[in-house]
Amino acid sequence: MNSSLASNMIRFIILLLAQVTICNNINLLGYINPYIYVIFILLFPVKSNRLLFLILAFNLGLLVDMFLDSGGVHAGASVFLAFVRPVFLKYAFGTLYDHQTLKFGNSEFGALIMYVSGCVIFHHLILFYLEIFNISQIILLLKKALFSSIFTVSLSLLLILLFRPRK
Amino acid sequence: MQQIFNFVIRNKTFLLFLLLFGIALSLTIQSHSYHKSQFINSANSLTGGVYGTVNSIGQYFDLKEQNTILVKENKTLREALLNTVKTSHDTAIDSSLIDKRFEIVSAEVYKNSYNSPNNYLTINRGKRDSIQQDFGVITSKGIVGIIDNTSNKFSTVLSILSKKSRINAKLKTSNQSGSLKWDEASPYKVQLEDVSKFANVTIGDTIVTGGQSAIFPKGLGIGVVEKYTIDASGDTYVIQVRLFNDMTTLQHVYIIKNNDIEELKTLEALNNE
C-alpha cells in the first residue's frame, strides 16, 4: 500500500510538471496540445477510497488551471472523469473489474486501448465544452476535442506501456 | 433526521462530486466574465517559480532572434533621436521636476498561450514593481495586452488574443476609431469592428491605439489592414488586422505605467454613480 501511495504521489507531481512545462507548449498545428495529466486519473488504484480519488482529481485539475489561467475547466473535467470512471472500467474490462482483481500493469492491450480512449474522449469533450462555453461553436469544440484526443490517447498509451511495472 | 443522515452517507460520493463540480463550474463562469478578480490564476509564487525555472533554460533558444529585435529597436530609437530638431531656445528644465505621465517597466514573459478562447501571459513583474491592474503591455513592435491579476512578484496579462478584450483603436491616416476584438481564428490576426462606413479604408493602412482609454497612450502600433468587409447591419466596416507582433514568440515586453490612472478611475467612478 505504501509503495502504491508513493508511486501515485510521484505520478501526480511529475504529470503536473510535464503537463504545464512541456505539453502545453507543443501547439501542434497552432492549437493541438495533449493533456497527459489524465493518466493520473486513469491509473489511480481501483480499490481505493472514492472520496479521496475525487478530491485528488479535483486538485490536480485545479493546479493545471492555476498554471494555465483557465478558470476551472480542467478541475471540472477531471472531477467528472473521476466520477464516471467506473462506467468505463466496467465497459472495457468487464468481469476483471467486477471481481476487483484488475491491475493495469498486466491487463489486455485491447481493453486498455478501449479504456484509455473512452476516458480521454469523454474528458476532452467536457474540457473543451467548458473552455469554449458556447454551444453555437460546436464544430470548433468537436474539432478541438477530436484532434487533442488523438494526441492524448497515443501519448498516454505510449507512456503507460513504457512505464508499466515489470512482471 | 436519521433519514437525512442516511441519505447523505449513502450518496456521499455523488454529493462530493456535485460540490466539486459546482466549484469548478462557478470558477469557469467567473473566468468568462470580464474583470472579476479570479481566485485561480498563475500570478503566484508556485506557478511563477516553476515558469521562472523553465524560462531560465528556455530563453537561451531564441537569444539570437531576441538580439535582432533589440538591435532593430535601437536603430529606430537612434534614428528618432538624431532626427529630432532641437530648438535652441529650449530652457533647461530639471527633468525630475516634470510629472511623468507614463513610465515604462521592462518584463520577461514566463508563460504565453495563444490557442484557447481567452489567452493569458504570465510576466515576472508584480506589486513590488508597483504594477497594477489595467496597465498596458507592449513590445517594441506593438501592443500585447492588459495587466489582469498581480501578485507580489508576478502578473498575468490578458492578451489581445482574447474574447474578453476590447481595445480602442483607430486608423492612423483617417483617425476613424473602432474597437479591437478577436474571433479566435488565428493568433496573427485580430478584427477592428464598429468603424464607420464613411471611413477611408485601404489595404495596408496602419492601425494604432486610439488613446481613448487610460490603458494605452495614443498612437502605439497594432497592425495593418489585411482586408475589410461591411458588417451584416450595413453601417460599419469589419477590418481584418494583421498584427505587427508575433504573439507566439513573445519574450521581452514593456509595461506602461500610467501615473494618472488613479485620478482617471476616481473620476470615472464619480460619473458612474
UniProtKB/TrEMBL annotation, chain A:
Q: Which domain of life is it from?
A: Bacteria
- Key words, A-Z: Membrane, Transmembrane, Transmembrane helix
From the record, give the transmembrane residue ranges. 12-44, 74-97, 109-130, 145-163
**Name of the featured protein:** Rod shape-determining protein MreD
Source species, please?
Answer: Winogradskyella haliclonae
**Upper taxonomic classification of the species?**
Bacteria, Pseudomonadati, Bacteroidota, Flavobacteriia, Flavobacteriales
UniProtKB/TrEMBL annotation, chain B:
From what superkingdom does this record's organism come? Bacteria
**Keywords carried by this UniProt record:** Cell shape
Domain named Rod shape-determining protein MreC beta-barrel core is located at 109-257
Cross-referenced Gene3D superfamilies? Rod shape-determining protein MreC, domain 1, Rod shape-determining protein MreC, domain 2
Which InterPro entries does this one have?
Answer: Cell/Rod_1, Cell/Rod_MreC_2, MreC, MreC_beta-barrel_core
Its family remark reads: Belongs to the MreC family.
Q: What is this protein called?
A: Cell shape-determining protein MreC
Organism whose genome encodes this protein: Winogradskyella haliclonae
